[in-house]
């Protein structure tokens, strides 16, 4: 029997790229080298640009928040609605490169990993100065002993047991970092692999600086919570 894969895409004001992302996910499912059934879930995190309406044309489940609640809350809501034995999280702005997501499934399906994380190619335009990534990497290493090459990556696949055991409601953009710390501490096997995903790049703009500032705060808060109350 083919495994059921739940693909969860949190989205906030992503109507411009969401349709191409969802189309790519659907095409990848239809043309994958190995069979699997798919449940496609989009969580509209309080968007004001019609993101939820775009999602309705493609997704099996569309959850709509009345106000923006943050990425961690959207991921949690999607996971609560998921039925798959394997859960995949993808960012909404991957566009056509989302077709590469089955690469994340292969190590999990082969029994080589409980959680896979995508390492993306270098950005094509200069972004920040590595403060958020540095904090995330050092925090994961300090709290779990794991040296991650992609602690912030939102593209990941995992057995549903990983989420059941972690149990924590992660904060905003710190969700991926907290999940990695908890998964390592609980003894799950992590594999990081290069996948040629591409997403929107903000560069060194005011929008980019605001985004990275929020990331820095939320990653720091999540690491503090993982230190204060370790997973067990």
From TrEMBL:
Domain Glycosyltransferase 2-like positions: 6-123
InterPro entries referenced in this protein's UniProt entry, alphabetically? Glyco_trans_2-like, Glycosyltransferase_2, Nucleotide-diphossugar_trans
Keywords per UniProt: Transferase
User: GO molecular-function annotation terms?
Assistant: transferase activity
Please tell me whether the keyword Transferase is annotated for this protein.
yes
What's the domain of life for this entry? Bacteria
A Pfam family matched in the record: Glycos_transf_2
* CDD domains according to UniProt: DPM_DPG-synthase_like
What's this protein's name? Glycosyltransferase family 2 protein
**Which organism encodes this protein?**
Paenibacillus elgii
């Amino acid at each position: 029997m083919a495994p059921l894969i739940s693909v969860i895409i949190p989205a906030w004001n992503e109507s411009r790229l969401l349709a191409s992302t969802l189309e790519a996910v659907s095409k990848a499912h239809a043309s994958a080298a190995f069979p699997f059934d798919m449940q496609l879930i989009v969580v509209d995190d309080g968007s004001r640009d019609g993101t939820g309406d775009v999602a309705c044309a493609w997704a099996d489940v569309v959850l709509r928040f009345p106000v923006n609640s943050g990425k961690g809350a959207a991921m949690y809501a999607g996971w609560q609605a998921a039925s798959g034995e394997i859960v995949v999280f993808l960012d909404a702005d991957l566009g056509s490169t989302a077709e590469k997501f089955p690469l994340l499934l292969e190590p999990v399906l082969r029994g080589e990993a409980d959680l896979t994380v995508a390492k993306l190619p270098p950005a094509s335009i200069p972004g920040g100065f590595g403060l958020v990534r540095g904090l995330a990497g050092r925090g994961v290493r300090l709290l779990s002993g794991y040296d991650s090459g992609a602690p912030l990556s939102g593209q990941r696949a995992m057995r549903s047991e990983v989420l059941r055991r972690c149990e924590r409601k992660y904060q905003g953009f710190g969700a991926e970092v907290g999940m990695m710390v908890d998964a390592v501490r609980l003894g799950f096997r992590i594999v990081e692999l290069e996948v040629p995903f591409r997403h929107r790049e903000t560069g060194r703009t005011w929008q980019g600086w605001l985004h990275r500032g929020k990331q820095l705060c939320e990653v720091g808060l999540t690491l503090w919570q993982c230190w204060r109350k370790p997973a067990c």
